[in-house]
Task: inverse folding
C-alpha cells in the first residue's frame, strides 16, 4: 500500500485545497526578487579602491585559476555580504595573506579593512524570505501545547522524518525545506495527535475503576527468563513485563495509581556463584509504555523501588497514562543477558552445567504477586485536552452553528499564532460542514433511541478532528513568519517563545501580543525574566547546547564493542554519561550565572559516579545540590511533570565537584563527550580536535583543505606518532598555514584517548608530547592550553553570541548584525560575561527584536 493509500478518510490536499491554503511561498519568492532588484547596485567605482590590493595580495590564491577554500575574489558579482564580512575579518586580523606570502603595510591593511567593512555593510541588505518551517522539535512541542497533551511518552512528531540539517542549527530556514511526502506526514501526525487529545467515544464523565491484572501472566520479549506461576510471575531478565491476558491499555487518559506487590527472590539459588545483583537490594521499576501502530513503541520508567528479599510488600506510584498506554514492571539491576552470564559462569567452571543452563536459569528475580491499576483518579470534566483544544470549560454544543464558528476561530488563532481573519474562518467552517456531511449518518433505528444525540456529537467531533488536522498541516501553522525590520507583537512573541521554549507562545504572551503591550520595553523585559525561570527553558538548553556541541552525533562512531581496550565504554554506558555531563555543565553555567569563560576552563566539573571513575576524581555520593548564585532564576516545577534544574541534576546522580589545582579536567575540553566526538572510535584525531577548538570555541574555523592535498594516512604500525605525521604534512606549502593553527591545539589533547581517559604514552610505547604554542604563547600541556583559551574570553563570548543569535533568527548573521554583536559583547564584558547577563543582553537587543 502506498503512503497516500493509508490516508483513507483523511482530507486529501485537493479536498481542502491544501496547496492553496498553504499559500506556497511564491509571494515570498516575488518579494525576494523585488528586494534583490531594489538592493543598492554598486557600480565598479565602489570596488576600484580595493581592487589593486586584492590583485596584489589575494587573487593569486583566490582567482580565476585557483580558489583556495573555494573562495574567489576577482569576480565581484559573485561575492555576497557574508563573504565580504569574512574578507574583512581575515584582513583586519592579519590572518591573510599567509605569513610566507607578500605582506601589506600596516596602513594598507587598515585602510583596506575599513573599505571592505563598508562594502560588507552595504551588501548586508536583508533579502530574507521572512518565514521558516517549524523543525521537528518545535512541531512536537507546539502540537503538545496546542492540544494540551502532557509531556509524557506520546511523541506527536514520531511520524515525521528527522530534519536533514547539513550544517548549523535546526532552526536554519534554508535547511528546512518542504515536500509532498513531508506534508502527508504532518497531516497524519496532526490527526493522530488530535485523536490522542479528543479520545472520548462516549461523551459522558468517566468513573474511577480498579483493574486487577493477572499477576501470573506477565511476560516480556524473552520468555526464557520468566517463571510464570499460578498467581505470580518471577521476572529474571531485564525486560519490561506486562500482562498477556485480557485488555491492558487504558481507554481514557489520566492519572492512575499502579500498585505492585513484590519481593526479591532466589538470591542464593547457586551457592557461591552470584548472578546480578551480586550485592545490594534487588531493584524493581514501574513504568508506562505506549504501542503505536506502525511506529516504534515509546516507554518510560516512572519510579524504582528497592525490594526486600523473600518478603512481599506493596509498592505504588501515581502516573500519567495516555489513552492506549499500559503499565509495566521490570527488574532494573538484574542480568541484562542471563544466558551470557550463565555461559560465562560455565566456561569459568563456577557452576555445574548440570545444575544451571540458559534454558533453566533460576537466578535472582522480582516476584510479582499482584498488579492493579486504579483510575482515572479525580477525573477532570471535560478532560484537560478538550478544554485546551476547544478553549472552553464545558463540553461544547456542536449542534449550535455559532458555537462551531467560535470553536474554529479560537483554534485558528492559537494554531496560527495570530488573530484568525474572516477568510480563514469562512474557509474552515465550510470545510468542517463538508466533512460532517461526508461522514456516515446514524441509521433510522439509532436516531430513535437515546444514544442519537451522542451519535451526532461524535460525528461532529470527527468532523472537527478532520478540520483541525487540515489547519495543522497548513502553511500558517507549519511556518513562522517574520517580516523585515522590527517584529510586530505576534511575531515578537513567537520569536521569544521559540527561542527559549521551542514552542508556541503561552496564553500570557498571546494576551500581551493582542494588546500590543509586548512592544513596551519594560513589559518585554518582564516576559524575558518570567520565561527564563520557566522549566520549559530546558528546551533551549537541549536544543541549543546539543547542536552547538554536536552531542546528537555522539555515538555515531563508538569503539568496537569487541575491542577490549574500550570495553568499559559499553559496559559502563559512557555515551549517556558523557552527553548528560555536558548538558548539566551547560545548565550549571547558565542557571548559576557563571562566566561563559567556564566553558573554556573551570575549577569544577559536573559528574556522576561513573565519570568520577573514568576521570579518577573523588565523588561525594551523599552531597545535595548547592547552588551559589541567583537561585531565584533556576526553573521550578510547573505542575506538568517538568522537573526543576536541581531535581534534574540530583535525580540523574550528578554532582558539582571541585577540581584540584592543575587538574587536567575542567571546561569543555576535559569532558568525555568532546573528546569522543573528535575521535573516530579507533584512534584520536588531533586535526579534528584542533579544528573543533578554532571553530566551536573561537568562531575562527580554518578554510577547507584544497582538493589536491591528500588526506592524512594513519600509521597502523605505530612507528610514527601523530606529531611526526603532522610535521611531514605541514611541509606541503598548501597545508602549512592552516595546520600551523590547528595542530598544536589538537596535539595538546593527545593526553586523552578515544574515550576521554587520560594517558601519558601511546600504546606502542612513545611518550606523548602535549606541548605547543597558541597566539605566540607556549604551553606545556592541556592545562596551560586551557588557561590561554580563557584569556581569549572576549573572542569566545562574541562567537557564542553569534551562535545564539543564529539559533534564534534562523539564518546567518550579516555585517549589520555583527556590529550589534560587538555592542552586546561590550555590555556583557561589564558583567564579567556571566551567562544569564549575556543572554539577557541578547534577548533585549535589536538583534532579537528585529528580523
Result:
Amino acid at each position: 500500500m502506498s503512503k497516500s493509500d493509508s490516508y483513507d478518510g483523511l482530507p486529501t490536499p485537493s479536498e481542502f485545497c491544501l496547496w492553496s491554503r498553504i499559500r506556497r511561498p511564491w509571494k515570498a519568492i516575488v518579494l525576494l526578487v523585488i528586494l534583490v532588484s531594489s538592493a543598492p547596485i554598486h557600480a565598479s567605482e565602489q570596488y576600484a579602491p580595493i581592487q589593486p590590493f586584492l590583485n596584489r595580495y589575494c587573487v593569486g590564491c583566490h582567482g580565476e585559476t585557483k580558489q583556495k577554500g573555494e573562495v574567489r575574489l576577482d569576480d565581484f558579482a559573485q561575492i555576497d555580504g557574508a563573504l565580504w564580512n569574512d574578507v574583512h575579518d581575515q584582513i583586519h586580523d592579519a590572518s591573510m595573506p599567509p605569513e610566507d606570502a607578500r605582506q601589506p603595510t600596516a596602513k594598507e591593511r587598515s585602510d583596506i579593512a575599513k573599505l571592505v567593512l563598508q562594502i560588507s555593510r552595504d551588501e548586508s541588505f536583508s533579502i530574507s524570505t521572512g518565514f521558516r518551517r517549524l523543525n521537528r522539535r518545535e512541531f512536537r512541542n507546539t502540537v503538545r501545547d496546542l492540544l494540551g497533551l502532557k509531556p509524557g511518552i506520546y511523541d506527536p512528531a514520531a511520524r515525521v522524518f528527522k530534519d536533514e540539517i547539513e550544517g548549523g542549527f535546526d532552526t536554519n530556514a534554508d535547511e528546512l525545506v518542504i515536500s509532498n511526502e513531508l506534508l502527508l506526514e504532518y497531516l497524519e501526525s496532526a490527526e493522530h495527535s488530535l485523536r490522542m487529545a479528543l479520545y472520548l467515544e462516549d461523551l459522558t464523565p468517566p468513573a474511577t475503576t480498579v483493574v486487577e491484572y493477572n499477576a501470573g501472566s506477565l511476560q516480556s520479549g524473552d520468555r526464557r527468563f520468566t517463571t510464570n506461576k499460578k498467581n505470580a510471575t518471577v521476572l529474571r531478565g531485564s525486560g519490561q513485563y506486562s500482562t498477556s491476558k485480557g485488555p491492558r491499555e487504558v481507554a481514557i487518559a489520566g492519572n492512575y495509581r499502579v500498585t505492585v506487590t513484590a519481593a526479591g527472590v532466589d538470591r542464593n539459588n547457586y551457592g557461591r556463584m552470584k548472578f546480578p545483583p551480586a550485592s545490594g537490594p534487588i531493584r524493581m521499576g514501574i513504568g508506562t509504555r505506549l504501542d503505536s501502530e506502525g511506529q516504534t513503541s515509546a516507554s518510560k520508567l516512572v519510579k524504582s523501588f528497592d525490594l526486600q528479599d523473600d518478603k512481599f510488600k506493596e509498592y505504588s506510584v501515581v502516573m500519567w497514562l495516555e489513552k492506549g498506554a499500559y503499565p509495566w514492571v521490570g527488574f532494573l539491576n538484574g542480568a541484562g543477558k542471563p544466558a551470557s552470564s550463565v555461559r560465562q559462569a560455565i566456561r569459568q567452571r563456577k557452576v555445574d552445567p548440570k545444575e544451571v543452563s540458559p534454558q533453566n536459569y533460576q537466578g535472582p528475580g522480582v516476584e510479582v504477586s499482584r498488579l492493579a491499576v486504579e483510575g482515572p483518579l479525580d477525573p477532570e470534566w471535560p478532560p484537560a485536552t478538550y478544554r485546551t483544544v476547544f478553549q472552553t470549560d464545558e463540553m461544547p454544543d456542536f449542534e449550535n452553528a455559532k458555537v462551531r464558528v467560535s470553536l474554529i476561530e479560537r483554534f485558528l488563532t492559537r494554531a496560527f499564532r495570530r488573530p484568525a481573519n474572516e477568510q480563514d474562518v469562512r474557509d474552515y467552517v465550510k470545510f468542517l460542514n463538508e466533512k460532517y456531511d461526508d461522514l456516515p449518518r446514524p441509521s433510522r433505528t439509532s436516531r430513535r433511541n437515546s444514544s442519537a444525540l451522542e451519535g451526532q456529537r461524535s460525528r461532529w467531533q470527527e468532523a472537527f478532528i478532520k478540520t483541525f488536522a487540515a489547519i495543522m498541516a497548513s502553511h500558517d501553522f507549519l511556518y513562522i513568519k517574520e517580516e523585515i525590520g522590527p517584529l510586530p507583537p505576534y511575531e515578537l512573541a513567537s520569536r521569544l517563545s521559540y527561542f527559549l521554549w521551542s514552542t508556541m507562545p503561552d496564553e500570557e504572551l498571546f494576551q500581551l501580543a493582542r494588546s500590543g503591550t509586548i512592544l513596551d520595553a519594560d513589559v518585554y523585559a518582564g516576559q524575558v525574566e518570567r520565561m527564563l525561570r520557566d522549566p520549559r527553558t530546558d528546551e533551549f538548553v537541549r536544543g541549543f547546547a546539543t547542536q552547538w556541541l554536536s552531542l546528537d552525533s555522539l555515538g555515531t562512531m563508538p569503539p568496537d564493542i569487541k575491542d577490549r581496550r574500550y570495553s568499559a565504554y559499553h559496559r559502563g554506558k559512557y555515551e549517556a554519561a558523557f552527553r548528560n555531563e555536558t548538558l548539566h555543565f551547560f545548565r550549571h553555567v547558565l542557571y548559576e550565572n557563571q562566566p561563559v569563560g567556564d566553558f573554556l576552563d573551570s575549577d569544577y566539573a559536573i559528574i556522576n559516579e561513573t565519570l568520577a571513575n573514568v576521570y579518577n576524581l573523588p565523588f561525594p555520593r551523599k552531597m545535595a545540590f548547592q547552588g551559589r548564585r541567583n537561585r531565584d532564576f533556576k526553573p521550578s516545577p510547573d505542575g506538568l511533570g517538568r522537573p526543576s534544574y536541581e531535581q534534574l541534576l540530583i535525580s540523574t546522580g550528578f554532582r558539582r565537584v571541585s577540581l584540584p589545582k592543575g587538574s587536567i579536567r575542567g571546561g569543555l575540553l576535559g569532558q568525555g563527550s568532546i573528546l569522543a566526538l573528535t575521535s573516530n572510535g579507533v584512534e584520536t584525531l588531533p586535526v579534528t580536535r584542533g579544528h573543533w577548538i578554532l571553530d566551536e570555541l573561537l568562531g575562527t574555523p580554518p578554510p577547507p583543505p584544497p582538493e589536491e592535498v591528500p588526506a592524512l594516512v594513519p600509521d597502523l604500525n605505530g612507528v610514527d606518532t601523530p606529531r611526526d605525521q603532522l610535521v611531514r604534512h605541514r611541509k606541503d606549502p598548501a597545508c602549512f598555514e592552516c595546520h600551523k593553527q590547528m595542530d598544536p591545539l589538537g596535539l595538546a589533547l593527545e593526553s586523552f584517548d578515544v574515550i576521554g581517559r587520560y594517558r601519558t604514552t601511546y600504546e606502542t610505547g612513545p611518550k606523548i608530547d602535549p606541548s605547543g604554542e597558541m597566539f605566540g604563547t607556549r604551553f606545556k600541556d592541556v592545562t596551560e592550553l586551557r588557561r590561554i583559551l580563557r584569556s581569549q574570553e572576549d573572542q569566545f563570548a562574541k562567537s557564542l553570541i553569534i551562535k545564539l543569535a543564529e539559533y534564534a533568527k534562523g539564518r546567518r548573521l550579516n555585517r549589520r548584525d555583527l556590529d550589534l554583536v560587538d555592542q552586546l559583547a561590550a555590555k556583557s564584558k561589564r558583567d564579567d560575561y556571566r551567562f544569564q547577563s549575556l543572554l539577557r543582553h541578547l534577548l533585549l537587543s535589536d538583534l532579537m527584536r528585529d528580523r
Q: What stands out?
A: The radius of gyration is 31 Å. Residues 47-122 form one domain. The first strand starts at residue 131 and ends at 133. Residues 342 and 403 are 67 Å apart (CA to CA).
